[in-house]
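anyone else get weird line breaks when pasting these?? whatever heres mine. first is seq + tokens for prot A
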Amino acid sequence: MTPAVRALEAAGVEFSIHAFSHDPAAREYGTDAADALGVERDQVFKTLVVLADAAPAVAIVPVSAQLSFKAAGAALGTKRVEMCDTTRAERTTGYVVGGISPFGQRKRLATIIDSTCERYERIYVSGGRRGLDLGVAPADLVRLLDATIAPLTA
């Protein structure tokens, strides 16, 4: 069990666990997950660690889309947003890149999620390691992470 799975169990929300074979050479973790799960790429979301005015935050967007830094800044109420470097993202969350889950991170970070999540009854996010995704209702994700829903993609 990963910290993400334990966090969802402790919260008592309904979720599903989906393990799949991950090619270690692949760099497109999210699209691999969508293909393995047999769902739309827009329904699988990637967890990105960004720096909002130099403070770590989390942006959750579909794997099929690119994060708009301008939109993320507006949602986070900051002027400058940029990607967090790999080492700091892993140290901050406790997960490896490609397996960063929005749940069970070492420290709760400000979290924003793309508004397209509302199109689905269930979305899929990383379960805390490569090759593991969790299906969860967007409303539960928002509630558990105290996330803000906003349009975040370019």
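and prot B, same format (seq, then tokens)
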Amino acid sequence: MHLKNFGGDNPKGQVWTYDALEGTARPATPENTAVQSYFYSSETTDGKIDGTIDEAMTKIEGVAAPVYEALLRGEFPKDGSPERADFAVFLALMFARTTALRRMTAE
């Protein structure tokens, strides 16, 4: 949702990604940049992946996406509107999903 707004012209629509391990940079589509599968998922006692948290985050981002796009155009949601509340939830999620906050919570 964020990175697509930084896509360049060479190559068109892609962002440059730096690989710290290899010391190289390469173009990549925004959808395939900074992605880690099952990052917020947990393993159940029977060894299966529980993606409930990932799925909830995807829904929250989906609801916030139109508001985000409107904000980029300079359009602000009205006070008390559902869109404003949806975006507030999204912002709280962005804060809560950081690696640092996850580490602090685990500690």
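btw re prot B: The helical segments are 52-72, 82-96, 99-106. The chain has two domains: 1-35, 36-107.
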